[in-house]
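WARN no homologs supplied; continuing
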Amino acid sequence: MTVLLQTLATGVALAGLYSIFAIGLSLGWGLLHTINFAHFSFVLLSAYVTYELSATGGWDPLTTIVVTVPLGALLGLGLQLFVTTFKIDVFGTLIVTFGLFLMFEAGMAMQWSADLRRIPAELNPYFTSALVIGPIRVSMLLAISTVMALVTCLGVWWLLQHTATGRGIRAFVQEPEMAAAFGVNYRSLALVIAGIGGATAGLTGTVLGMYLSLTPTIIEVWIAVVFAVVLLGGLANPIGVMGSAFVIGMVESVTRQFADPALARLAALVVLIIALVFRPEGLFKRLVEEARE
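OK structure emitted
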C-alpha cells in the first residue's frame, strides 16, 4: 500500500510540473493561433537566469521569479507583437517559432557552453528537501511546482470565465466580426494572453532551473510530453491541461515504479496516440470553440 501511495503522490507531483509547463503553450495555440515552439526557449532561458542569479548572485532560487516571470511576459509580448504586425498564420507561427527556438538554443550555447550547469546543493534547499506525509515522501520542489500549477491554471480559468478580458477573448474567437462590432479590441486582449503565457514560461523556467542540470539542448526532451499534455487537455482549457497532465503523470509514475523507468516517457506517448485515435479532439474539449465557416 505504501508503494502505491508513493506512486500516486509522485504522479500528482509530475502532473503539477507538466501543467505549469503546458498552460502557456495551450493558451497561445487555442486563443492566439500561435503554435509557439519558442515557448520552450523562453522556459530554458528563464532556467538559466535562475541559475545565474542563484549560483553567482547568491539569490534564493525561488525568489528569482521576480525576474523570470516579467522576463517571460516580455518575451511573450514581443512574440505576439511580431506575429500580429506581420500577420503570420498558424502554420507560419510554427515555422517562425521553430526558427526562434534554434536561434535561442544557439545563443544559450554561446553564452553558457554545452557544459552542465546546476545550482549548488547548498544554495538550493528545495531540491534536497522533501515533504513527508506519513509514509509518503515527495520532493519539496515538485510539491511547490504543484501548488504553483494549481494557482496558475485555476487563475487563468477564472480570468477566461469571469472577467471582461476573458469574455472579450472568448467572444472574438467564437464570433470575430460580431465581437469587433461590439468594440472588442482583440489586439490588446491578445497581448494580455500572450503576456500571461510568457509569464508561465518564466515561472516554469525557475522550477526547472532548480530541478535540472542545464544544457542548451536539455529542453528538447520535454517537447513531446508537453505537446501531449496540450493535445489531450483541449486547447486553451486550463482545467483540461491539469486533467491530461494528471493522466500522463500517473502513467509515467506507474511505469517507473512497476516496469522500466526508461519506458516512462514512451508509455506516456503511447497513451497519447491511443487517446487521439478514439478522441481526436483530446480527452477534454477546448474551452472556446472557433467560429465555423
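The first helix runs from residue 2 to 32.
OK
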